[in-house]
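Hi all, posting the design record for the shared folder.

TITLE: backbone redesign
STEP: 1 of 1
STRUCTURE INPUT:
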């Protein structure tokens, strides 16, 4: 019997599902059990061509619609996503293994927020009028044209919407390629947009590995590339886009600092560290994986952290009581277990977790290491799993320097009850998305993105509009033209 997660076909082009079984088969594995639940096929060159030419053509009429009309469609899509939240959350859980307890509140709902927010902004995208004496200049905010979105595997619905919603609001079309590990959810986003009244061809989904991503990025018809992925992939995609002078948004990895001063509320700080390391089993780019704790509260913090981490309910992600799910894939599980071994070998003190959970599927226990030093591998490299490194510090000046000593700069957090210190410290941290007495909130209203190797450009908020549109300026002369001869 066909599994309910099996999509009708692998790709969604020009308003309909399209299949081409000549492509490489991609098995879809349910991370909680290791069983194959679906198969899709990587896009062949013919499929890539069909998606790009369709999107290029469809964009022209879409850009000519008024912002109000485009926005209405996006907002209708948001409503449909909310109505179907349960069904979409179950699919997200099949795609990623994340517990339903999370997917019910963080995935289709977050995608719907983006569609609603950018749908609301679509009608207000205007230029300005600049008086020049009797003459004037006016500016027009125009779409870029055909945009390519490429997603990572941790938030397949959210990423498809965070890229698609602002792109479409501005009058662009999109070809989206999900990660081969989580190919299912973006197809639903494409289907819902059509149901909401979007013209065929403005939002297309094609499956495939890096090769397909690369074919999309290098196509001369493409005007913009928005990638969510790792730094090494980001460097390749950025370079390929530069070759064609294309616009880019790069949402890449991190190794973010979470700094806890000894005047902080311990339980809130522990809660922040748990949210910033163990949500989605640690597979979140903005995670605060270097937890710097001021020496005075270190043992108290560790004791409370171990106690609360012990309350995680690890198990069947479809059971709403479960609060901690598996890694997305066997490969990712092995990467994370490799880092845990490195942590032990390099002398970090294991506080809790530290091994594969005794279950079917790709579960790794939530793991805390203490006495981690700045040079240890687990403190330097992005693990993308439930491995928290706790480091000690003495002074504010010292911790700021150590927090910034990394190639990454995605996020940073500070817990303290001294608000002047909170702002002073945040002001000196090299990071794009920061938190005071909180961690990992990502509302659509707030810009999201990194500095340094963690990325270029911003998603969400009005900032995202700037990255999916460009400004044309028009000088209008009222009098005669003077010329030298
Ligand atoms: P990857 O960098 O491996 O892949 C990202 C996407 O790029 C995938 O769809 C991948 O395809 C595709 N891709 C790979 N090579 C190329 C290429 N040469 N040209 C075009 N596309 C290519 O990341 P993961 O999927 O492993 O995701 C984890 C990473 O994503 C982490 O480093 C994490 O920090 C980052 N991330 C960043 C976020 C942010 O907003 N800053 C949010 C979430 C994750 P395929 O995998 O199918 O081969």
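Okay, here is what came back for every position:
SEQUENCE:
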């Amino acid at each position: 019997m066909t599994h309910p997660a099996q999509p009708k076909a692998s790709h969604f082009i020009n308003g309909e599902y399209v299949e081409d079984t000549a492509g490489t088969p991609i098995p879809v594995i349910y991370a909680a059990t290791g069983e194959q639940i679906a198969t899709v096929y990587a896009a062949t060159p013919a499929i890539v061509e069909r998606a790009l030419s369709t999107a290029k053509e469809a964009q022209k009429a879409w850009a000519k619609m008024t912002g109000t009309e485009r926005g209405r469609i996006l907002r209708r899509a948001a409503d449909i996503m909310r109505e179907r939240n349960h069904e979409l959350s179950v699919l997200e859980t099949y795609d990623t293994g994340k517990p339903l307890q999370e997917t019910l509140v963080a995935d289709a709902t977050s995608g719907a927020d983006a569609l609603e927010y950018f749908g609301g902004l679509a009608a207000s995208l205007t230029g300005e009028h600049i008086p020049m004496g009797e003459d004037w200049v006016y500016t027009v905010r125009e779409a870029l044209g055909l945009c390519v979105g490429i997603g990572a595997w941790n938030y397949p619905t959210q990423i498809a919407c965070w890229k698609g919603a602002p792109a479409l609001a501005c009058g662009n079309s999109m070809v989206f390629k999900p990660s081969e590990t989580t190919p299912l959810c973006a197809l639903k986003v494409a289907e819902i947009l059509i149901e909401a009244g979007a013209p065929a061809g403005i939002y297309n989904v094609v499956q495939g590995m890096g090769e397909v991503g690369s074919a999309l990025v290098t196509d001369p018809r493409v005007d913009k590339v928005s990638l969510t992925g790792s730094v090494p992939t980001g460097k390749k995609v950025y370079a390929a886009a530069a070759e064609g002078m294309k616009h880019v948004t790069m949402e890449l990895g991190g190794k973010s600092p979470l700094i806890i001063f000894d005047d902080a509320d311990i339980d809130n700080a522990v809660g922040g560290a748990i949210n910033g390391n163990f949500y989605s089993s640690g597979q979140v780019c903005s995670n605060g994986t270097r937890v710097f704790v001021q020496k005075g509260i270190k043992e108290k913090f560790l004791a409370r952290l171990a106690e609360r981490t012990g309350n995680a309910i690890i198990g069947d992600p479809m059971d709403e009581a479960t609060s901690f799910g598996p890694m997305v894939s066997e490969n990712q599980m092995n990467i994370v277990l490799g880092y845990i071994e490195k942590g032990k070998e390099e002398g970090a003190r294991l506080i809790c977790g530290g091994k594969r959970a005794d279950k079917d599927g790709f579960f790794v226990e939530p793991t805390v290491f203490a006495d981690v030093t700045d040079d240890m591998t687990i403190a330097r490299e992005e693990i993308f799993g439930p491995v928290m490194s706790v480091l000690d510090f003495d002074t504010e000046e010292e911790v700021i320097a150590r927090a910034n000593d990394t190639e990454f700069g995605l996020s940073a957090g500070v817990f303290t009850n001294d608000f002047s210190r909170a702002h002073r410290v945040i002001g000196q941290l090299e990071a794009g998305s920061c938190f005071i007495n909180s961690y990992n909130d990502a509302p659509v209203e707030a810009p999201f993105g990194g500095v340094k190797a963690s990325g270029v450009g911003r998603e969400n908020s009005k900032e995202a509009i700037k990255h999916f549109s460009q400004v044309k300026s028009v000088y209008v002369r009222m009098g005669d033209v003077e010329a030298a001869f």
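COMMENT: The first strand starts at residue 11 and ends at 13.
Let me know if anyone wants the other runs.
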